[in-house]
Amino acid sequence: MDKLIMTPGPTECSEEVRRALAIKNTNTDMDKDFFELYENTCRKAKKLINSEKSTAIIMLGEAILGLESACASFIEEGDKVLCVDNGIFGRGFGDFIEMYGGEAVHFKGDYRKGIDIEDLERFIDEKGPFKLATLVHCETPTGVTNPIDKICPLLKNKGILSIVDAVSSYGGEEIHMDDWDIDVLLAGTQKCLSVTSGGTLLFLSDRAKEILINRKSSIRSYYANLKNWLNVIEEQKFPYTHSDAMINSINVALERTINRGDFVKAHRELAEKIRETFLSCGFNIYPQEYFSNTLTAIELPEGISFDDMFNYLNREKNIVIGGSVGEFKGKLFRVGHMGENAKEEKIYILLKALDEYFESIKISLDKKLHIEFSKK
Ligand SMILES: *Cc1c(COP(=O)(O)O)cnc(C)c1O
Question: Would the CB of 90 count as within 6 Å of ligand 1?
Answer without folding.
Answer: no
